[in-house]
Amino acid sequence: MSDTNSQLAASAEIRARIDTATPHSARFWNYFVGGKDNYEVDREIGDQIKEIFPGLVDVALTSRLFLGRAVRHLIREEGIQQFLDIGTGLPTADNTHEVAQRVAPDARIVYVDNDPIVLAHANALLTSTPEGSTAYLDADLYDPDTVLEAAAGTLDFSRPIALIILNTLGHVADHDQARDLVRRRMAGLPAGSFLVISDSTATSEGMIAASNAYNASGARPYYVRSVEEIAAFFEGLDLVAPGITQVPSWRPDTPADPSAASVDAYCGVARKP
């Protein structure tokens, strides 16, 4: 089979896996941040949840801004130029590779996801500056060893790497299992590597109600956690100031608006000793 025919067959197989009848977390999030890669079923549950808890839109938008600040900090202040982004989601503006290579053109980025809707948009992610490198892995959140082995084709594991997991760990129902997945990935990275996490938190009745409504929609469930449970992902690592904090309050580019800081999402950045 020719390369063109192989690519067409792969594309058809990926698209056959896309379920447009059930809400989907990546498309739902894409709708919230103003993207166009979503379906009516995603917009319907999105609008329903906006009625229940409009603050979830702020979580989506501020989480994207946090990603940019964290990546720029890691490059400028910590000397990190390699990034492993787990649970990529759908591309919007200022993806990890765009932010990183804008600051450091030779930065290397590996995206990891195994969702068909994300795979269908992989070409939008597989771009890079001539000096750097960007790759995409079709791999499972629950198989960290395979992810690390495949990522070594692009990243240099003799040098520090930033592991980024944003708004993804909530899909793992059991907190101990989620912690183990993080621990196993960090164990495979060299000393001086960093962990970057943000996730929605059960810090208001509105967020808990929104989570329950989303999980009742038939979509893959997403479980919001306590701030203490988010902090537990960083055990054994050295937190970068200001530590575990609400997403907008992590090293804001401008003086923080007190009202903007009150989102139900917490984050942290930490270094592996």
Automatic annotation (TrEMBL):
UniProt source species: Streptomyces thinghirensis
Keywords: Methyltransferase, Transferase
InterPro entries, sorted: SAM-dependent_MTases_sf, SAM_dep_MeTrfase_SAV2177_type
Keyword NADP: no
GO MF, one annotated term: methyltransferase activity
Gene3D superfamilies tied to this protein: Vaccinia Virus protein VP39
GO biological process: methylation
Domain of life: Bacteria
Protein name: SAM-dependent methyltransferase
Pfam short name (any one): Methyltransf_19
